[in-house]
Design brief:
Blueprint: E1 2-7, H1 13-23, E2 28-29, H2 33-41, H3 55-71, E3 76-79, H4 85-97, E4 102-108, H5 111-118, E5 122-125, E6 128-131, H6 133-137, H7 139-146, E7 154-156, H8 162-173, H9 184-197
Helix pairs in contact: 1-8, 3-4
GO molecular function: ATP binding
Keywords: ATP-binding, Nucleotide-binding
Protein name: ATP-binding protein
Length: 200
């Protein structure tokens, strides 16, 4: 099974994916951003743009995730924002057309809530860290796109904890946890660790 966790920037995709991985037996997080970063490194800086616009990224995501899902006995978890209708159909539709058991979840929240979360995030850039201005600029586009029925199943995260979101996804996908919730202090430490590992 492949579980695609979609959502605007700040919706909690990465934290949700890694908490699912911790609580499920033999789950694996597969991040398509890594393919995008690799393609960027192969291009001169002046030619780099959104890697989702690269046909080779989209085809590689489909090929790689199909192989990962076929080779892995547990759920493959994919935290990735994708809000272009054509790209969504190409990737999500492409995986399903190849027989992949794909469950799609869009984590949604109001623009105000997402802005509040993003104000506490930073990105790694040459010379140090900076605020997530690019992600903030994408909020309106992402929120509007993800509201469409094609991006179901929707999970409104506005007033839910990460644990609540994780448990909703697992229940909907028919997955059984093998690990319990962490104590609040343990969860916050793990959340910080995951966040630091994924500063972009």
């Amino acid at each position: 099974m492949l579980i695609w966790i979609n959502g605007a920037f700040g919706a909690g995709k990465t934290q949700t994916a890694f908490e699912l991985e911790r609580r499920l037996s033999n789950a694996h997080v597969a991040d398509p951003e890594l393919l995008g970063f690799a393609l960027h490194r192969m291009q001169p800086p002046a030619t780099r743009r959104d890697f989702q616009d690269l046909p080779q990224w989209r085809s590689a995501v489909v090929d790689t995730l199909q192989q990962a899902e076929a080779a892995h006995s547990g759920p493959v978890l994919v935290p990735m924002t994708i809000v272009d209708d054509d790209y969504f159909d190409e990737i999500i539709g492409g995986l399903r057309s190849r027989g992949v058991d794909l469950r799609h979840y869009a984590l949604i929240a109001s623009p105000q809530a997402l802005r509040g979360r993003l104000r506490n995030r930073v990105a790694l850039v040459p010379g140090g860290l900076r605020r997530e201005t690019w992600a903030l600029e994408q909020l309106s586009r992402c929120v509007a796109a993800l509201a469409q029925a094609r991006y179901a199943t929707h999970i409104d995260t506005e007033h839910l904890s990460t644990n609540d979101v994780v448990e909703q996804i697992a229940a909907d996908a028919g997955l059984t946890f093998t690990a319990p919730r962490l104590a609040p202090w343990q969860f916050q430490l793990r959340r910080l660790h995951v966040g630091l590992r994924h500063i972009r």
